[in-house]
Amino acid sequence: MASRTRRTRTYDAAKIRTAVTAQFAHIAEAVRELTPEQLGRDSGLGDWTVADLAAHIAWIADSLAAGLARPPAALPELTAVEWPSATASLAGKIAEAAKEILEGAAPADLFEHAGARMAEALAANPGSRVLALWVGDMTLADFLVTRTVELVVHTDDLNRAAGLAIPIERQALAACTRLLADALALKAPGGSVEVRIPPFAVIQCIEGPRHTRGTPPNVVETDPLTWVRLATGRQDWASAVADASVTASGERADLGAMLPVMS
Length: 263
Prior knowledge:
alpha+beta; Four Helix Bundle (Hemerythrin (Met), subunit A); Nonspecific Lipid-transfer Protein, Chain A; 10 helices; 6 strands; globular; disordered N terminus
């Protein structure tokens, strides 16, 4: 469970590495089986097709390897919890870089190349180092936590767009859920609303009277995958409340204006 106090969350680096590698492998296996019809479908993400989305996921692994190939930076400028709010300005740049590097290759080939390159780079960098990144220099450990967000979110995107059932690693989903919950607490600090995302996270946020004991007067509760969709703009607050995938009680328990925390 997440702490209700404001302190920096820590992650088990070995488990995060395993989760990132395993989730990428799940996606690669599914992409190898996609039909031309599935690859041509609308991904639901702008003008991307499913093939474009698959290429972007391969680029996530390829770019991690590229980052590890560059000389390390001296000091981190960004922590994992600050990363979601820093990504919006880079969306176009990332999309163009991925297109330039990966355009024209078959998705299965992209995943084979990117997966091998990522595995080799991670094996050669078992310790801590600082990556020089567009978004801001980050420790490898923190950056790998952000990769769980990318991979979980895009696994869900692929599942919905292509009618797949790619499994999501529990450790990857846990890290993704916790990071996006902490990002909300960073964006809207306070203690008047308790957000519960069992079994992975509980945070308090939004200025106002702070809850100290007993049942909080303002409570939001949802499941991890719904939270991930809300936090990344895949689902809007009003529809989630309407279909009861979110419960919200109390006059301050409306997170609509605070979401998404990453887009």
